[in-house]
Amino acid sequence: MTDRVQAVVIGGGVVGASVLYHLTRAGWTDLVLLERADLTAGSTWHAAGGIHPINADPTVAKLQKYTIELYRDIEEESGQDCGIHMTGAIFLADTPERLDWLQMTDARGKYLGIDSEMIPIEEAARLLPIIDPDQFVGAMLDAEHGHVDPSGVTYAYARAATAAGAVIRRHTWARRIERTPDGAAWRIGLYDTSRGDLAGAAQAAGDGGCDEWIEATHVVNAGGLWAREVGRMVGVELPVLAMEHTYVITEPLDDVISHNERTGDEVMGAIDFGGEIYTRQEGQGLLVGTYDQAAVAWQRRQTPWDFERRLLTPDLERIAPSLDTAFRHFPLLGDAGIARVVNGPFTFSPDGNPLVGPIRGLPNFWSACGVLAGLCQGGGVGLALSNWMTTGNPGFDVWAMDLARFGDWATRPYTAAKVRENYRRRFSIAFPNEFLPEGRPLATTSIYEPQREAGAVFGDVYGLEVPLWFAPEAGAVEDVTFGRSNAWPHVRAEVHAVRHDVGLMETSGFAKFLVEGPGARAWLTHMLAGRLPRPGRIALAPMCNERGNLTGDLTVACLPAATGTPDGPVHTVTGGATGNAATAERFIVFGSGIAERYYERWFEAHLARWRETSTPNGAGPDGPVWYRTLGTQMCGVAIAGPNARDLLSEVTDADVSDEAMRFGSFTALDVGWARAWCSRLSYTGELGYELWTDAGYLRHVFDLLMTHGQAHGLRLFGLAALNSLRLDKSFGSWAREYRPSYDPFEAGLGRFVRYTKAGDDGADFVGRAALIDKYGPGGAAAGSRSAPPGAMSLRTWTVDGRLDESGFDAAGDEPIYCSGEPVGWVTSGGFAHHSNVSVAMGYVPAELAHDDVDFEMEIVGERRAAHLVDGCLWDPLGTAMRR
Question: What is the pTM of this model?
Fold first, then answer.
């Protein structure tokens, strides 16, 4: 008889053990962890064990801090020694740019509660006398840095989990994973590896080469080095790759011994950005690790199943350049003997962050992979995933770790290129205007080449090349910097063109979904918190989760049914030239391009629930509904500026007057010879139109607009100008202002929520009950003094500083101070060229979001006065968009 359990965790490394432990802490105990060999046998056992709370993403930093603080608890709970050494560490900067990064990191730590401080290099040398201070320009002290015993931590999780009722099965290989016939659970085929003959597994007695089977409602892939292979068992090629990583342990060093004797403390750890080096004390010597520039991938195609508790062949030649830097920066290493070389594989994702969450199309199959810093992040990953599995929500914003940030464009070769790039840059600083070159260009549209020839400088968004700004000549490269780059004057000119003439920008990178079927309106009414538009209209519609927090800032267009019109006037809605399948209203849902897979997963999970709770045939109460992703099959351009209507009127015979095409219209028209959907709205705040057409027609539409636009002062513009223009208007964006950390009222979107106005239909939507419980039936204006305790408010500030190319602007995650105390954080910022001022948007407690409060922001190490903006800087009534 096959056993059935609530969840199976595959993988007995520190991440799998953490997931198991956190599931028991969340109340699940009918759990089994499957480990092919023994706990820690993959990459955990040879990890260097470093822990610290420093991460470029604030949420990941919080989870790392949680992980560190958890170790004392699980040590006490389990009785297992975790080998905790909280030594502190010095982060070393050898260039002014790296010092800037440390100052920004230290500032971010102020509102995250991280115990760090900037210190002079002389103080760093006193605290860490093994460095040569002449090699560095500054340093940051991290008091929460240390190291642990990887095996001790893993066994502490395991012991605490089994004490709560979970079961760990060692020497049990999960060889096959398939759905049960009723689709309600998973079947996992098991093979006993204690017999030691993995090569003979295929000939094993039993069903499908398995000794036995177990069923589980949930399955977690915490396979570590074998995450790809476990994913392939259910038809998924996860974007993860193992890299060879080397650290050396020196023989005992007199300086280390004398420091221990003199101070009674271990030598502090060090992170050396210039050499991609980390150090800590090990025994009476030092452990020195490096992310070498050779970046050697391990087992690009298939990880051997019989690999356990093994190291790889050391290659000191490969890490010699890094060691040369180490000898300069840490002079005592030049004469140190090497006692041991550890070269072992660790898994990386393309951007270096974990791959966590549910997998689209595989109900109750979860990923906990690519956690290269398992001792730093494993506790946080376990907490997030256990919340997600047991409550349907991770409990906080995990966008930086969410598997859905990658789409199917993240193929195995692409992953290999990006992982090697990321490995080389493990300790490199990341600039806010930096787009890395590996794996590009990948996806392009038909107007990529003409834009490139026009001087476009590209970045990549969700695999697609998108123009950032336009230089006078092709081939320009943007200087990466924390300040204003060489793009500044050109972006300024693009903004000027949009505000005074007309600009054109490609919009193909948006996520786009077609929702159809008799039940489409009813389902979208349930899914979206906003008011659905009438046929021929488009509207902003926030989307919430069950807690009432944002899961999307979407725009929804309603395509009218092409049912014909008496007498056949020219403005009749038609479904095509030689056919008509558009006999009922349909909807196009637009969203942020980076969230395409995120939306797909959300839609499909809720469609399944909608059908389960509806009619017996699963069609839904108002009939069937289905959706499909349009992707770059549907491409687009936007034109914006005072001359936009005049330009559009020259390329179409449709009536585009204000009377015929009001703000918020969505209508079909012909642009030249091409059929297009035209929406009248603009993220720039100007009079604007978005034109959407089949990919094959995009070049025709683009060329036509470029030709006719010359007489109207048309100029191409990119994402940098769009950012400047939106800051004029205090318009937010997904993953910055709009994230699952905030609800629509906090984010200033409350006016779009469908229960706050007289005449709202009162129909339920996901998150409605939570919002009413928090704010009452009337909602609340953002920043209202009557907002509930703990509510935050999205606000815009102007920031004092230089107004020329030499200045610095907020980029995101800087602290916001009130009366000298950190009270909030910047979500995004930049220079609003039209208003000629530096601008930042961010969140502060609602009770402080008023102009009688003095604010400051810390930008690249400098405190600056910040002045609250009442509404927005430009055209607060929105007359330009509606002219």
Answer: 0.95
